[in-house]
What we know:
Layout: E1 17-19, H1 34-50, H2 59-72, E2 80-82, H3 84-95, E3 97-100, E4 103-106, E5 113-118, H4 123-126, E6 134-138, E7 141-142, H5 148-155, E8 162-169, E9 174-181, E10 183-186, E11 190-194, E12 199-204, H6 212-224, E13 229-233, H7 242-250, E14 257-262, E15 268-272, E16 283-287, H8 294-304, E17 309-312, E18 320-326, E19 332-341, E20 357-358, H9 377-392, H10 394-401, H11 406-423
Parallel strand pairs: 1-18, 12-13, 13-16, 16-17, 17-20
Antiparallel strand pairs: 2-19, 3-10, 4-5, 5-6, 6-7, 6-8, 8-9, 11-12, 14-15, 14-19, 18-19
Helix pairs in contact: 7-8, 9-10
Amino acid sequence: xxxxxxxxxxxxxxxxxxxxxxxxxxxxxxxxxxxxxxxxxxxxxxxxxxxxxxxxxxxxxxxxxxxxxxxxxxxxxxxxxxxxxxxxxxxxxxxxxxxxxxxxxxxxxxxxxxxxxxxxxxxxxxxxxxxxxxxxxxxxxxxxxxxxxxxxxxxxxxxxxxxxxxxxxxxxxxxxxxxxxxxxxxxxxxxxxxxxxxxxxxxxxxxxxxxxxxxxxxxxxxxxxxxxxxxxxxxxxxxxxxxxxxxxxxxxxxxxxxxxxxxxxxxxxxxxxxxxxxxxxxxxxxxxxxxxxxxxxxxxxxxxxxxxxxxxxxxxxxxxxxxxxxxxxxxxxxxxxxxxxxxxxxxxxxxxxxxxxxxxxxxxxxxxxxxxxxxxxxxxxxxxxxxxxxxxxxxxxxxxxxxxxxxxxxxxxxxxxxxxxxxx
Length: 424
C-alpha cells in the first residue's frame, strides 16, 4: 500500500481504477456448482449446530465469511467483497459525497478522537471546530475505547439529524458540548494556484466520480490568470474512476490513444482522447510511489506521447481495472476485470512508470494533508507539525516544517527552461 498513510481517518482511500464496464458471467449455472454448494451448505449446518464461542453464528454472517474467503482466494488485493454498509461507504469515496459533519480525523488506540482539520463550509467548520480539537465523546459515548471506524459510523447519519459532540480544546483548557446538524459533505480533490507570473500549479488528489469539471474550471482559470506552463501534481494520488482518467488525460494530449484495456477473453478496448484540448504549453507531471492506477494512466499517456516531463519517483505500478458488481442482498464485489496498457502498449502492473527526472523525497509529511483539498491549509499544517513533533521531537519537526519541496522546485525550474527555450 501507499507508505505515507500512517493513521486511519474519516476519509477512506480509493486505490483502484474503477470502471463502469460490464462483466462476463459464466452461464453454466447452478447445477454445475451443485457439489461445491452442497459442501458449503453442509459446513454451515455443522458450524451452526456445534460451534461454541463468544458469538452465535448466523447463516448470513457465515455466508458473508464464505464470500470474503472466496474473494481472498483470488490472491488479488484489488478484488474485494463488501457488506451493504461497506459498499455504501465505498460508493461515497468514489462520489466524493457522504452524510456527516465534515471533519478529517485521527484516532489512536486508547486516545480520544482528534480533529486534523475541518472541511470548509461544513457543519463542523461553521460551528468553529478547529484542528487539534479532541472529540472526547459522541452522543455521550466516550471515544477513548472505540475504534476509528466506530467513530466514523457515529458521526455519519441522515442529513438534517443531529449529533452532540463533547469537545476539549487544549489551548483554552475547556470542554464544551457542540450540537451539529448533519449534512451532505462534498469533498473536493482539486487545488490550483499560480506559482509564478506565468506558471500554474494544478493538484489532483483523487480521480473522483465526476472530478473532470473541477479540473477543467481550475485549468481554464490558470490560463486566464496568465499561466504559460503547468505543473500537474499527481503525487500520492491513488486513482479512481477510469472515465475521469481518460477525460483528464485528454486535456493534455492532442491526438491519439490515452489507454487501452484487455479483459478475460483478450479483446482490446481502445480509449482515444476526447473533449477539449488545452494547448501545447510546457507541462510537468509530478509523480511518486503513491501515484497509482488512474494517475498512472494520465502519466503514462503524457510520457508515451512525449507531451511533457515526469518528475519525482517511480509510480506505484497498479495496472488493473476493477468494476463494482452489486449483489441481490445489497452487498457487492469489486472485481478485477481487465489490465490496462499505456498508448505504446506497455503494461505497468507491478512495474510502475519511471520519471524522466528522478528526485527522491523520503519524508512523507509533505502529503500529510491527505486527499481532501477543501480544508484549512494553515490548520492542517499546524496539526501535521504537532504529530511530527510527537513522533520525532521538536527539533526534527522544525526542520521538516521549513523543508523545501525539491520535486516541485525542480518542476518549476524545468518549466522555466522550457519557456526560455520557446522564446529562443
